[in-house]
Amino acid sequence: MFKSLVEFFVFYSESDATYYPTTAGNIALVVLIFLLFIGMAVFSGYRRKTQAKQMAFSAAAMALALITARFTVMELPQGGSITLFSMFFICLIGYLYGPKVGILAGLAYGILDLTMDPYVVHPIQLLLDYPIAYGCLGLAGIFSKSKYGMVKGYILAVLGRYICHVITGIIFFGMYAGGQNVVIYSLSYNATYIVPEAIATIVILSIPGMQMALMEVKKMALEA
User: Rounded distance, CA 190 to CA 36, Å?
Assistant: First the structure.
């Protein structure tokens, strides 16, 4: 019975050696994303008018993340790619509205990314590589009230995502290491696509004009 229930939501492709959601699975994921958006409004603690603005800003940021993620500079064979600053837009939600909302937005985006481009070999790997990894990007909100908060928050958030992918690389993709130490392999493999994008983003965020622009965006996002 449990196997039949699982097969109702996912199916295994032998040609790709990965799991894909069925139509019912995709519907369940969309419902979950919707519930996470409701959670964002509930945990925000803002008044209703500000909550509506928060939902609009968050949805726009997630859409930009999804679009920029499709513009890749480089794609790696076992997953991962250098994108057009897609991580920044999820971190931005945390910077604007704090870590609770940011983490929920990251979880929602991770599930959305799963529906668009899944690469799943195990349920634990799914959780770590999608909702948890992207949920870590919401940690940028921890520094939302400090000087250079976006830069500091971005570094922490990306580090959190990096650790998630390193763990799955060690546990689930060690067979690709060849004769190399599996830990070193996972550290270097995931750094290949995360570090270059992170460095480029940090350089841009460090520009004084960008700092002022972010402050203006935050002011507009929080206005009642």
Answer: 28
Question: What CATH number does the domain containing 49 carry?
Answer: 1.10.1760.20
Cβ neighbours for 111, distance < 8 A, ≥ 6 positions apart: 29, 32, 33, 36, 130, 131
Residue pair 76/195 in contact (Cβ under 8 Å)? The answer is no
The string of pLDDT tens digits covering residues 147-191 is: 888 999 999 999 999 999 999 999 999 898 888 999 999 999 999
Report the alpha-carbon distance of residue 27 to residue 21 in Å, rounded.
Answer: 9
This prediction's pTM: 0.88
In the chain, the number of structural domains is 1
